[in-house]
Structures are given as C-alpha cells and as structure tokens.
Amino acid sequence: LLPTFACVVFGYLLGSIPFGLVLTRMAGLGDVRQIGSGNIGATNVLRTGNKKLAAATLLLDALKGTAAAAIASLWGVEAGIAAGLAAFLGHLYPVWLSFKGGKGVATYIGVLLGLAPVMVLAFAAIWLATARITRYSSLSALVATAIIPVALYATGYGKMALLFAVMTLVTWIKHHANIQRLLSGTESRIGEKG
Ligand code: G3P
Q: Looking at the predicted complex, does its ipTM rise above 0.90?
C-alpha cells in the first residue's frame, strides 16, 4: 500500500506541473490564462501564435502522464493505474494554481501511452480524422476520449477501460464550456485566435 501511495503522490506532483503556463512565461509571451479560452493547454498556447511552444506543451503535458504511469507500473499494474490517474488529476487540479488546471487531453494521451501504448494510435487516428473534418480541437478530443474506453473494453483491457472511462468523464466535465460553445456554434477552430 505504501508504494502505491507514494506513486500517487509522485504522479500528482508530476502531473501538476503546468507546462503551458511555464513555457509561455519563459518565452516572454505573458500569462496564457489571459488569452483565448484562458486554458493552460496546448490548444490555447497555439493561440499565442507560437506553434513550437504549443507542440512542446502537448509533448511535455503528455510525457508527465507517461512517466508517472510507466515508472509506477514497476510496482505493478494497480500502482501504474493509480499514478496515471493521479498525474491526470494533478494536471486538471494543480495545487500551485489554486486547483485551476488544464482540461486533460494531452495528459490523457500520455497516460494512455504509458499503460496501453497501442491505443495511442487509435486516439491519434480518431482525433486527426475529426480535426480534419471539423477543425475543432475540443470536439476531436471529446470524440476520441469517448471511444477509447470502449475500445479498451472491447480488446480485453477491463481495468484500463474503467480507468479511462473515469478520465473521459472528467475530461468531458472540464470541457463543459467548449461543449456549450460547440452547441451554439461559437467554438473557435484550430488556427483561429479565439
Ligand atoms: O481538447 C482541447 C481543449 O483543450 C480545448 O482547449 O483552449 O480551446 O478550450 P481550448
């Protein structure tokens, strides 16, 4: 139990590093929470106009989830799942930002990479196809996160399916404003300043 608790703390701390905020500040672009949607994620970092910074945010926000899940997995599947979930929640609810963190998509992908790597290909295919058709980052993530738990369950990853179903639910809740904008036709598309 102690190793699992340590993995959860480690996962949370790693997940709570707000790379989007840190990188935009370091680049002298100010506080990313003051622009676009106000989110700290890669989609909103892209609204600063700096594509490389957005890519770095996506990569680092993902890799913190991967690292937490993969390292904790050395203590067993349950520890990996617990740390992955903790990293995800750390990104969404970081203590450093009064628990106002990101929306979870990059870290979701990262945890998926750490626990069920093949599924990242499915996520990427679904996300890219939806983005190509609609040019909505949020909708692409909503569709991909809806399908992943079903795909995990269908391929025999029972425990993982449950974990990602929970993560999907939280991701959708965090996207409530995006969902409202999508429904009212006011959501900004990829490449728009928003
Ligand atoms: O799923 C992408 C999500 O993070 C959208 O971000 O900044 O458009 O609310 P944003």
A: yes
